[in-house]
UniProtKB/TrEMBL annotation, chains A, B:
GO terms for molecular function: transaminase activity. This is PLP-dependent aminotransferase family protein. Pfam families: Aminotran_1_2, GntR. Residues 16-84 form the HTH gntR-type domain. Keywords: Aminotransferase, DNA-binding, Pyridoxal phosphate, Transcription, Transcription regulation, Transferase. It comes from Chitinophaga defluvii. PANTHER family: HTH-TYPE TRANSCRIPTIONAL REGULATORY PROTEIN GABR. The lineage of its organism: Bacteria, Pseudomonadati, Bacteroidota, Chitinophagia, Chitinophagales. Signal peptide: none annotated. The keyword Transcription applies.
Length: 489, 489
């Protein structure tokens, strides 16, 4: 007889009832060939003694196995393993772990996709973090948002369920966005021009997938937001890099390319370009709009940081002008609240939104519809708008504070242009101090910061990182700058 | 002079400051060619009178335009529109809406993807809803979950940020899943075998994208979960439909295909198959595992409903046996909590998970990491496990109640097999009562229910729908059945 007491492990504090654990144990033994079809199992009394459980538990386990067709009872022979299972070849007998560990590698081959740029620093439980431009969750109206969420959970079923059924996202939130985007960005749109996505990233991903075929040419900035690059490359696109200077992307260079061959997509971040924080000038916007209307190529306008502007007002987006239906405008509410609330949007002609919905449902059926409804309520009550005013003021102060600190403490080490808006500053580190070494020393001191590798490719070593200032309060900021200073050798 | 008072609209209650609205208005007029480069603008005093705002507001607007390079000031000539803008052709003069409405159609062409099966009933603000198998959010531990979320928001920055950095999802949640999936499903895995996704759908989508090339052959059930079908088709795959009977997918039919040509993927729902609710028998599981090991084709085992079993225990998943690294196991916590909490997981060999991460970040950087951490805390405290016990008991009762109600009230109209588990019953409607007509009448009476079109394709008209019972309390269930009864003619 098999040593069932060692082969079948029982954990009385597990969520699975003991009888079921026993039944599962038998199934593994049968499947592994340790018990063969036709073999007799010990009677319930004997098994109960072996496993040190109540006899009723064993009976329940046998009932379970019977229900599932693993065993049968034969008069005068007792419980036997069913004969009608496929033939099983016994395997070598070393059954200390009855359930095999998951295979380390697949038995099949599969495709590969562009990997994240390798970084030298692994994120861990550091005490302090410099993010690359995220808001301060501590000042976000999370309390209000979660209270609203709780309220919606308790709504009558029909009303609550109604919010689940809009594939384009909560109707209330789209209605609020129509008003908000018109007032702040001059967008003249209706709810059918809006698709709510998971952050801006999913909107970029879907737009790219709709317009790109393998081999397609996408114009992006040099440098560019690396997650957009990765999305385009994952669809087999070829990136053509356009220089970015203090006035944004070089529109003349774009024109030159159009004259040769119309690109399949242009990806542009007109405000506070990622990573360099420069803004596309009014002049270049005008010129670019002409090119877009003339050559009719699709444009993703990623305006993720529009609401955060400290020097004068932001310039109206390309999407607010006559672009002949060629601009897909993408934004995010993640930046307005907290990194964890990943709610973004795509604004596009209705025919494009309709097609994007076919993709949306296959990627992630829908978002957290109650979170979207809760956010819509905060818009309707003016809470989001109030929060934006408050945080623009605060982040403006933090930007100025960081600039002053860097000038005072790290002159000659870090140089930068004061960004007109956004939540990060493009910190260019003097090349005699390699960023990976600084970041490694900082990590050892409890500060997680970028080693700059996400933006450096091949010979293009910027030795620079995005210094997110929005989520650091004055005390943290002083500490962080001091830690960097102490990490320079 | 242009009628600025009608061309520039001011909304004093909007979030955008009035001076900025005025500046934006001018930009539109310049861009639209209504004001030409070199043209003079009225002085601030005159403009203030025209627009009926304070003169200081106009000065601020002009300052803004000056900062953005739209205007310059020339001594003794006053404010003029900058000359160095690209040449603008004036457009026809009918400027009642200064900002053009978003183009109705794109100026470019793009790809199309499989659409949702067309349904005749539009979801709206119905009082009652029959969903296709979702839990009752009213009994979910949402209060605990949101309380935990709130607690995490207030954590120290470093600790909180640490949870953002795991692309595979919250480490705590993956650790909890290692224990939970071992105790309930016999999965022998580590955290590196787990990727947290947005619901099961995103995991299906990523797994499919990794293994499918255009023209690939995917074996699916007839009928099958339509959102999985759509995901496979969106990657250009060809679906080959395998019959599903009361013991699940016909494994002999799968073998027959393997003998001709190895399929590129098998998608299988072994417990409470969607839509029919049948369970793959132990026999067929054994046989299928042999095929998988022999032919080495990738398998997506979608076990979304495993935790909800009422008749005996569930059968251990394929993933718990020796499958040679060919099974990708996908599950969801959405079913354990609420439709809005879209947290699912993919279990696979480590090399597959690593590659899936390259896709994950391009689709949706990461999930709501604080929600994942909050859920991990509920697992650690045993709240999820307690909730599962409670809900299995409750849904068991609701299943039995619905079965009794249907037998009493709708015999001869709706037939069904009692499902062994899950949250829905496959309600097959007598074909003399076309489901679209019933659903239309029910909708008019305030009940939203499926018209069955999601599962009927071409000549295959099942005239059936998934009757979700989990989210209906006894009163609602009686009412819903009565409404269906009254919708039959």
């Amino acid at each position: 007889m098999l040593p069932f007491q060692t082969l079948i492990s029982i954990n009385k504090s597990a969520a699975t009832p003991v009888y079921q654990q026993i039944a599962n144990g038998f199934i593994v033994l049968i499947r592994d060939g340790l018990i063969k079809p036709g073999a007799s199992l010990p009677g319930s009394r004997q098994m109960a003694l072996l496993l040190q459980v109540h006899r009723k538990t064993v009976i329940a386990a046998y009932d379970e196995l019977f229900t599932q067709d693993w065993i049968t009872t034969i008069p005068r022979k007792g419980v036997i393993v069913a004969e009608n299972l496929p033939e099983i070849k016994p395997r070598s007998f070393k059954a200390t772990t009855p359930i095999p560990p998951y295979a380390g590698n697949t038995g099949f081959t599969f495709q590969s996709f562009p990997a994240m740029p390798a970084t030298t620093i692994k994120p861990g439980k550091h005490r302090l973090v410099i993010n690359d431009g995220f808001p301060d969750i501590r000042i976000a109206p999370m309390e209000l948002l979660l209270r609203e969420y709780r309220r919606l959970v308790q709504q009558p079923a029909g009303k609550r369920a109604a919010s689940f059924t809009n594939l384009a996202g909560s109707l209330s939130l789209r209605e609020e966005l129509v008003t908000f985007l018109s007032a702040t960005r001059g967008l003249n749109i209706g709810v059918k021009n809006i698709l709510i996505s998971r952050g801006a990233q999913m909107a970029i991903n879907m737009a790219a997938r709709l317009v790109l075929k393998p081999g397609a040419v996408v114009l992006v900035g040099e440098p560019n937001y690396f997650l957009a690059d990765m999305a385009f490359q994952s669809f087999g696109a070829k990136l053509v890099r356009i220089p970015v200077d203090e006035n944004g992307m070089d529109v003349d260079a774009i024109e030159k390319i159009c004259k040769q061959k119309k690109p399949d997509l242009l990806y542009i971040i007109p405000h506070h370009h990622h990573p360099t924080t420069v803004t596309l000038s009014a002049n270049r916007r005008m010129k670019l709009l002409e090119l877009i209307r003339k050559y009719k190529f699709p444009v993703i306008e990623d305006d993720y940081d529009y609401d955060f502007h400290y020097a004068g007002g932001p310039i109206l987006p390309l999407a607010s002008a006559d672009h002949g239906g060629n601009v897909i405008y993408i934004g995010s509410l993640t930046k307005s609240l907290a990194a964890t609330i990943r709610i973004g949007y795509m604004i596009a002609p209705e025919n494009f939104i309709r097609e994007a919905l076919h993709l949306r449902i296959t990627i992630d059926i829908r978002g957290d519809s109650l979170m979207e409804e809760a956010l819509a309520a905060l818009f309707a009550q003016g809470d989001v708008q109030r929060h934006l005013k408050k945080s623009v003021k605060l982040y403006h102060e933090r930007r100025d504070m960081l600039a002053a600190l860097l000038q005072r403490e790290l002159e000659g080490v870090i140089s930068f242009h004061l960004p007109a808006g956004g939540m990060a500053l493009w910190a260019q580190v003097n090349k005699q101090y390699p960023l990976p070494a600084i970041a490694a020393r900082a990590a050892a001191k409890g500060l997680f910061m970028s080693d700059g590798s996400t933006y450096s490719r091949g010979s293009n070593n910027y030795n620079a990182f995005r210094f997110g200032f929005a989520a650091l309060n004055p005390k943290e900021m002083e500490e962080v700058v001091q830690l960097i200073k102490n990490s320079i050798e």
